[in-house]
Amino acid sequence: MYRIRCLYSKKDKAAYISHLDFMSTIQRSLIRAGVKLIYTKGFNPHPYISIALPLSVGVESECELLDVEITGNSLPKNINNFMPDGVEIHRTYISARKLSNIQWVDVFIEFIYDFRDDEKAKYSKKLLKLFSADSLIIDKKSKSGIKSTDIAPFIKDVNFSCEENIIMTAKLSAQNPTIGYNDIIQVFNQNNDIQTPDLIKMKRIAIYDKDMILFK
Amino acid sequence: METIEKILAKVQKPARYTGGEYNQIIKDKTKVDVRVALCFPDVYEIGMSNLGLRIIYGVLNNMENVWCERVFSPWADMEEQLRENNIPLYGLESYDTIKDFDIIAFSLGYELSYTNMLNMLDLAGVPLKRNERNDKNPLVIAGGSCSLNPNPISDFIDLFVVGDGEEIIVELVNLYNDLKADKDEKANKTKFLEKSSILDGVYVPSIHDKTNTTISKRVVKNLDTAFFPTRTIVPSMSIVHDRTVLELFRGCYHKCKFCQAGFTEHPVRSRSVETLTKQGIEAITNSGYDEIGLLSLSTGDYKDLSKLCDNLLKWCEPRKVSLSLPSLRASNFNVELLKQVQKVRKSSLTFAPEAGSQRLRDYINKDITEGELFDACKLAFENGWNSVKLYFMLGLPTETDDDVLAIAKVAHSVLNTWREHTNNKKRGVRITLSTSCFIPKPHTPFEREEQISVKEYLRRVSLLKNAIQSKMITYNWHSPDQGYVEAALSRGDKGLGAVIEAAWRGGARFDSWSECFSLQTWLNAFAECNLNIDDYATKKRKENETLPWSFIKV
User: Is the ipTM of this complex over 0.90?
Assistant: First the structure.
C-alpha cells in the first residue's frame, strides 16, 4: 500500500466542478486509468482519497494537492488521458508531510470591470488601499455561523497591477481560517463605496507552509 | 466565452452548462458536413441519465461527417441570465449557438416537458411553429415515447421518429446530407421532408396530415448487432442515475393494461449474455463507475439473468463494482438473485404491485400475488434488508374503496412479514408506500378510460392515509395536478398545440418538477384556447370514437 501525493491543476471548464463532485470525478478517472485503489472495509466501501484544500466553484488552480492510497507505488504515465477537460496531474510523489501543514496560498485575482482604462487604474489604487489596510472586517461564514472577522492578518503580500483588467496577487491564509473566493466577494458586498466587479476570477498559483516554504 | 463565464458565476450548478466531461466528442467543425443539436427538455442531471440520449449521441458521432452536441434545458436562473445577456442557447461541446445547426433533435419521453421544448427553441432564437420556419432555420425533429401521440406538438415539429431511433436517425441524417448543395448551407427542407416521409417509422405532419396515412413504428430487430454506447460521457457532476447501464432487452412479456411501454415496444428483443457481458465490462472500464444497472422493463424476466450476474460479478466484485437491478418483479425474485445484487453494496428494494387487491391486480393484468410479494419481502428481511419501497396507483379503472383499503393491508402485511423474519428487530424497518394517479395512455387497453378527478384522487389518498396505522410505514403521494395535465397532453389532439404554447407564454416551465408546476397556468391556457381540460383528461372516450393517435400503428 502506498500513499501517493498528486500535484494537479484544475482549470477552465473543470473550475466549475464542485468539490464534492470532483471527489467522485477524480475517483472515476483513476479507476479508468487502471489504478488499483485501496478501499475502506464495511457495507459501503469507498477509496481513500483526500484533497488538501477544497476549491470554490469557479476558482481555478495550478497547485492542487491530493493524496490517494493505492496498491502500486506509482500512477500510470498516461494518467492525464483519463481526466476530464481542464484537469491535469503534473507530478506524483510520496511525501511524509501532512496536508494540515499547508498555511498560505498564492493567488491571482482578476477584477473585471466594464470601465474606461484610466478609470480602472484609479480603481486599482483604491482596491490596493482596501486590501492592504491594517484591518479589513467582514462577516465571515464559519462552521459556528456568521461572525464579524478581521481578515487583514490573513492576507499578505498584496500587489495590484492594471492591464486589461485589474489584477491582484496576494497570499491568503489556507486553513484556520481559510480566506477564499467568497470572502473576497464579501469584501465588496460590505463596502458600499466600492463598485462590485462584473466578474471576479481567481486562480491558486502555489501553496506554502507557515514558514513560507513551498509545500510539497 | 467571457460573457458565459460572467453568467456562470451567477447560476446554481454551473457545471450543467460547461461540457468538458470525459468522453465528450469534439470534432473540427470545418470538417463536418452536418451538425446536430441533440436536445433534452429537462436539466442536465436528468438528461444525462437517459440511455436513449446516449445511444443517439453515440450513433451520430460515429458518423465521420456528423457532429452531434448536447443541449439541456437551462434552469430558471440560467434562462434569466441567457435572456438578459442575449446569449442564444448553445451546444455544450462547441458553445456555438444551435440556431446555426442543421438539425435540432428533441428526445421527448415525458409530456410535461413540452413547455421546456418550446422554451429551448425560443432561447435558441428559432421560431416555434414549423410553418413560421424557413430553409435558413434548422430542421426540428423529435423522437421518444411522446411520438406515440405526436398530435399536441405537431405544430412545432417538422418530423417525428416513431419507435426505435438508432437506425432511422442515421438514414435521416444521410438523406439530409445528400440534399445539401453546400456544406455551409442547409438542405432544402421541403425536398428533405418529402423524401423522408416514405421511410418506415417517420411521421411528417406537413405531408402525412393531408393524406390520412397510417404511420408504422420503427423496430430494431437485432439488439446484439445494434449500436450500444460503451464509451460514453462520464459527467463531472452528480446526476440522477450515476452509474453505467446495460440494456438487457426491449419490450415486455407482461401486458399490464396501463403500461404504454408494454404495449408499444413489442416484440421482445434480447441481447445475448455474451454481448451483455462484453458491453458491461467495456462500459465499466471506460467510465470508472462503481455501479452497473441492468435495465429493461422487467429485468427479472431476462432468461439468463443469473448467468449474466455471475459473469459480471466475476469481473465486478474484485473491482468493488456493484450491480443494481432496478426493475424486479416480486414474482421472480429469489435468493440467488438477492445474493448477487448485494455482493458489493446493498441497493434498495422496490416492488410495484400497482393495485392493493387481487381482484384489481387481476383486472389490470398485473400477474403478481400477495404470496409472491410477501415471499420476496421475507427473503429480503431474512437477508438483512430493513427497507422496502412499494409503488401503487390510485384511480385505476373499476377501483373501489375496498381496493384502496387493500393497499394499506398489503403494507401492514409486509410489516408483519418483517416482524416475523427479521434478524434484527432493534434496527426497525422502513416501508415506503407511494401512490401516483393513474393516467390512461394511448395504445394501451385503457386508452379510452377516464382519469379520476383531482378531488377524487385526494379523497382516496386520505382514505388510504387514515387506514395506515403504523409509524414504520411512510406514505408519499404524487401531486394529482401534474397527472391531470399529463393525462390531457397524453391523449391530446392537434388543438392542444395552442394550449401548450399559451401555457409556455404564461410562464410554464419544468412542469415535471412539482416545485415549478402550476395547474393554474395550464387552466388559464386551456381557457384562453376555449378548450376544456376535462374533455381530454377525465372524459371517457366512446367505443366508436376515432382516437387522435390511431394513425400511429404500434
Answer: yes
- Tell the residue number behind the cell numbers 492576507, with chain if given: A155
Q: Is residue B231 part of a domain?
A: no
CB contact residues (below 8 A), chain B span 311-350, against chain A: 319-320, 344-346
Cβ distance B52 to B59 under 8 Å? no
**Do the chains contact at A21 and B22, CB–CB below 8 Å?**
no
pLDDT digits (tens, 9 = 90+) for B72-95: 999 999 999 999 999 999 999 999
Q: Contacts of residue B21 in chain A, CB cutoff 8 Å?
A: 84-85
State phi, psi for B357 to the nearest 5 degrees.
-105, 155
Cα–Cα distance, B388 to B417 (Å, whole number)? 12
- Interchain CB distance below 8 Å, B288 and A29: yes
Q: Are B72 and B174 within one domain?
A: yes
Residue at B221 is within a domain: no
Contacts with A198 from chain B: Cβ below 8 Å: 6
Domain membership flag for residue B234: no
| Helix H or strand E encompassing A89 | strand A87-93
Query: Mutual orientation of helices B480-490 and B454-467 as an angle, nearest 10°?
Result: 140
Domains of chain A with CATH codes:
2-96 (3.30.70.580), 102-209 (3.30.70)
> Which CATH number fits the domain that encloses residue B46?
3.40.50.280
Nearest to A64 by CA among A43, A83, A44: A83
The chain-wide mean pLDDT, for chain A, equals: 93
pTM across the whole model: 0.95
Instruction: Show residues of chain A in contact with B290, CB under 8 Å.
Output: 27, 31
Q: Is B226 domain-assigned?
A: no
Q: Does B25 touch chain A (CB under 8 A)?
A: no
Query: Residue A117 — pLDDT band, cuts 50, 70, 90?
Result: confident
Whether residues B343 and B377 fall in one domain: no
As for how many domains chain B has, the answer is 4
Q: In whole angstroms, what is the distance from residue B316 CA to residue B333 CA? A: 22
**A19/B contact by beta carbon, under 8 A:** no
The 3-state DSSP composition of chain A as helix, strand, coil percent (nearest 5) reads 25, 40, 35
Helix axes B168-178, B51-61, angle to 10 degrees: 40
A2 bridge partner residues: A70
Query: Nearest Cβ partner of A18 from B5, B6, B237?
Result: B237
Does one domain contain both B328 and B454? Answer: no
Q: Residue B500's domain spans which residues?
A: 479-546
pLDDT score of B346 more than 80: no
B4 to chain A nearest CA, in Å?
11
User: Residues B429, B472: contact at Cβ < 8 Å?
Assistant: yes
Q: How many CB atoms lie within 10 A of CB B33?
A: 17
